[in-house]
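Researcher: Next sequence.
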Amino acid sequence: MASAVSTALRPIALIWGDDDFAVKQRARQIYQEWCAQWGGLDHEIIDASAAHSGEALAALRRLREAVQTLPFFGSGKVIWFRNCNFLGDERTASAQAVAEALSELAQELKKFPSENVRLLITSGGVDKRRTFYKTLEKIGTVEAFAGWSLEDRNWAEEAESCARRQVQSFKKKISRDAVEQLVAWVGPNARQLASEVDKLISYAGNRDEIGLEDVNAVVTRNKQSRAFALGDAFGARDLPKLLRTLDEELWGVKTDSRKSEIGLLYGLISKVRVMIFLKEMQREGWIKGETDYNRFKAQLERVPVDALPQDRRFSPLSMNPYVLFKTLGHARQYSLGELIEAMEILLECNRQLIFSNLDEALVLQQALIKIVSRTEADRLP
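Model: Next structure:
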């Protein structure tokens, strides 16, 4: 008996998108359910990854043969045309012979033997203008999985939901702090996120809940996460961590020509500017000191756009809402007066880095110590 997933699909399914991990995961689910439904030994997986037009044409020939060959050992057969890389705007796809072969195949699939054959096609990219895609959209099921990107406003919450579902599938829970840290360290990478969750499950062992300490112990921080580490330590007002991170970043300056002390400084200036904006937005009553992301996001959508800078480089509304939410937590560590003073210290640091012969590392260290250090009496309530 077919499951709910397989019965919702038409006999032909195209699963495609930039999120390679999600595409493969979904395709494997469909393939296994279809095979279980039909039984038999006639199922075929055809590698459709082609380096040139000749390989693409050969793969299409194998697909035609598979569709035209009726099953011998069961009631039906399943064909998986896997990793097809000539349905989009690739060089191979633009070859006239390949384009013509795809058009011919589209016409043949209109007479697809749906009584006893299922066809699954997976691809990284597709050209929606082409006849082949339009035909599959009419006669089959098409599912797209776009990869997460820093430009996507909701990538972080989608990643958190994905991580929680994976953890729950192992009958475990993950704390809010832990999943936030996990997503912040991994970034918009579904494959790595799934891999890191697997590591956390193994590390937790028989424990029912995964905590922040587990994430700190085993999760690998990607390049993007390391790039934000200095600003995060600054925002958390954690001086030992901040100085350690600064040392790591300064070492990176020596080995990566794309990095510079000035670049690190400008990142910190941007961090302070956003925290000042958030303080002012709170003062105006547009946002509150929320600890719930969804409520914060709803408030953010009601902020009058014309009251903030129109230049996207300076407007906090142009930032990812999740990043802004985390920065709101950092803003609580400083008073408005401290942030204004911090901006003055950083601007003086900028002047010294440009016009003086002082050691750049020492200049940055002294500026950060001056900003972040505070006596017990200075601590915010």
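Model: The longest strand covers residues 77-84. DSSP finds 17 helices and seven strands in the chain.
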